[in-house]
Design goal:
This protein has two domains: 3-75, no CATH class; 109-180, no CATH class. Strand 3 (51-53) and strand 4 (61-65) form a beta hairpin. The protein is elongated. The protein has helices at residues 3-8, 17-33, 66-80, 84-104, 111-120, 122-136, 173-180, and strands at 36-38, 45-47, 51-53, 61-65, 155-158, 169-172. A two-stranded antiparallel ribbon has the order 1-2. It is built from seven helices and six strands; from the N terminus they run H-H-E-E-E-E-H-H-H-H-E-E-H. Bound molecules: zinc ion (2 copies). Residues 146, 148-149, 151, 171-172, 174-175 line the site of one zinc ion. One zinc ion binds at residues 146, 148-149, 151, 171-172, 174-175.
């Protein structure tokens, strides 16, 4: 079955606007009957599986296909990735998403993944172990606030030096993330 031929009919016919509209409708109906939808971006007729769901659309699907959506998203990232304002906002958005996810899902760590990590990070693992035990035994205390920015909420243990396993800092997700960042730049509104 050739959809290319079907879509030839979609070429605008300036002298027959009504006929053109009818043709468009006809093609839409044919597509729907065949379980297909035309992407407005690349013009290809694809199966409904090739479109992301979107509740605001009449048919519940986005107007452009997954391939086009992915391409557009990649192009957008290319455009904005050097914009520090955007990067900072995006990180904030992802952190918030992560916090909500952790509250609503059981985060499962697969034993083999854990083992592989521990194998590669023996010193880190040892320090984590010692810190967890010390916390359990009351040798170190949980902080109520982030030790860098003073934020409340979910805090994580940070080892500034893995050679000193009991020296830990309690940090919010944001500050903990900053300690791990390879490309260090001064985030907006924050003193270095
Ligand atoms: Zn497309
Ligand atoms: Zn913080």
């Amino acid at each position: 079955m050739s959809y290319q031929l079907t879509f030839q009919k979609l070429e605008p016919k300036a002298d027959q606007p009504q006929q053109h509209q009818n043709d468009v409708l006809l093609v839409k109906m044919e597509n729907a009957a065949a379980g297909l939808k035309k992407c407005f971006k690349c013009g290809e007729a694809k199966t409904t599986n090739d479109f992301y769901k979107h509740s605001a659309m009449a048919d519940g699907l986005l107007g452009k296909c997954k391939d086009c959506t992915k391409k557009d998203a990649a192009n957008r990232i290319e455009r904005v990735k050097n914009d520090v304002n955007w990067v900072e906002k995006e990180r904030e958005r992802c952190r918030n998403k992560q916090v909500i996810y952790r509250k609503t899902h059981v985060v499962k760590t697969y034993p083999e993944v854990k083992e592989r990590w521990a194998d590669k990070n023996k010193i880190k693992r040892k320090a984590q172990f010692a810190a967890n035990n010390a916390l359990r035994d009351g040798k170190i205390k949980r902080s109520e606030i982030c030790e860098i920015c003073g934020a409340k909420g979910e805090l994580e243990k940070h080892h500034p030096d893995y050679e000193k396993p009991l020296l830990i800092q309690w940090l919010c997700l944001k500050c903990h993330g900053l300690t791990r960042r390879k490309n260090k730049y001064v985030p907006i509104g924050r003193n270095p």
